Amino acid sequence: MKLQGCKNCETKFSYKAIQRAFFSKTEKRFKCENCGTEHKLKRDYHRIISIIVVLPMFLHWFLISLDRLLVLSITIAYVIAIILLIPNIVKYDKI
Ligand SMILES: [Zn+2]
Predict the structure, then answer these.
(1) What is this structure's pTM?
(2) Are 2 and 88 contacting, i.e. CB atoms less than 8 angstroms apart?
(3) Which of 72, 2, 76, 10 is nearest to 39 (CA)?
(4) What separation in Å is there between the alpha carbon of 13 and the centre of ligand 1?
(5) How would DSSP label each residue in the chain?
(6) pLDDT tens, residue by residue, 19-47
(7) Cα separation of 46 and 19, whole Å?
(8) CA of 31 to the centre of ligand 1 (A)
(9) Ligand 1 centre from 3 Cα, in Å?
């Protein structure tokens, strides 16, 4: 997986810019640092990420026999991994 580039000038987006845009509460969009073209998060990706993050919470029901601290550690590690991978997963479209 590689980071997406600008749809206009193909400049690679920075990892931090994508992550910041994804976690912004208001607008899921940002400008290309090179040409200023605005990009917006593709509609479905926010939902996909939410599902990926929430899914392991339901697995707790099945992992109940395991040590709680272990389950908690695995969950936290999983969520952190997803957060770090978000810029590689999500896609943006030119507005
Ligand atoms: Zn650009």
Answers:
(1) 0.71
(2) yes
(3) 10
(4) 9
(5) ----B-TTT-PBPPHHHHHHHHH-SS--EEE-TTT--EEEE-HHHHHHHHHHHHHHHHHTTTSTTS-HHHHHHHHHHHHHHHHHHHHHH--EEE-
(6) 888 888 777 788 899 999 999 888 888 88
(7) 12
(8) 8
(9) 14
